[in-house]
Amino acid sequence: MVSIKDIPAEVRWEIAARSATAMTGAYGVFFERALGDKCAEIVKQIWIEGGKEAKGLAEKLALPVKDAREVDEAWGVLSQVLYGPEITWETVEEGKDRAVDRITGCPFLNRHREMGADARGIFDACQAYAKSTVESLNPKYTQRFESAMCRGAPYCESVVERKRG
Q1: Angle 107-115/9-35 helices, nearest 10 degrees?
Q2: Domain boundaries, the chain
Q3: pLDDT tens sequence across 73-97
Q4: pTM for the predicted model, two decimal places
Q5: Which of 9-13, 25-29, 63-67, 160-164 is the least confident region?
Q6: In CATH, what is the architecture of 7-162?
Q7: Burial grade of 136 (CB within 10 A; 0-12, 13-18, 19 or more)
Q8: Average pLDDT taken over every residue of the chain
Q9: Is pLDDT above 90 for 23?
């Protein structure tokens, strides 16, 4: 008989991350059929709530989140823990008040493509999640995307910066 202990941790992590990223595409398709025009707003709200969990996870992992660089790094660590090594990026600007990343690998986009689903619809939920995550980690900071792969760009450009005003 096979035990969970017989499956290497990396394999379990890959399976869990793949399942988590596939789930969003699957429920999106069925929600849209059942809810029609209301679907996008409901899915967006679910993702906003998911982003609020970041603070607790960062605290459990003792991730620092005092400035833009630390918030950006914590978000990256949490993304890889939750969604696996398929999520890849490079930091192109890094400072106390602003950090800019180019995300070049997205497991959510990959699952949508594998399922033959239209990936353009995932942007609003992803943007809501990313902003909620960053603001959960440190309410003095916010996040926005300047470009998105699901909208045809070669990478997602993410900006984490101190809120104005």
Answers
A1: 60
A2: 7-162
A3: 999 999 999 999 999 999 999 999 9
A4: 0.90
A5: 25-29
A6: 2-Layer Sandwich (3.30)
A7: buried
A8: 92
A9: no
| Torsion, CA 3, CA 5, CA 10, CA 14, rounded to 10 | 30
Write the single-letter amino acid at 51. G
At residue 71, what is the residue type?
V
14: helix, strand or coil: helix
CA 36 to chain centre: 24
Residue with tokens 């660089």: 69
C-alpha distances out from residue 10 to 16, 63, 68, 109, 151, Å: 10, 22, 30, 22, 31
Amino acid (1-letter code) at residue 146: E
Sheet holding 88-94, edge to edge: 88-94, 98-105, 156-162, 141-147
DSSP assignment string, 60-128: HTT---SSHHHHHHHHHHHHHHHH-TT-EEEEEEE-SSEEEEEEEE-HHHHHHHHHT--GGGHHHHHHH
Stretch 127-133: mean pLDDT, rounded?
98
| Nearest alpha-carbon partner for 155 in 113, 87, 100, 105 | 105
Residue with tokens 């409901």: 42
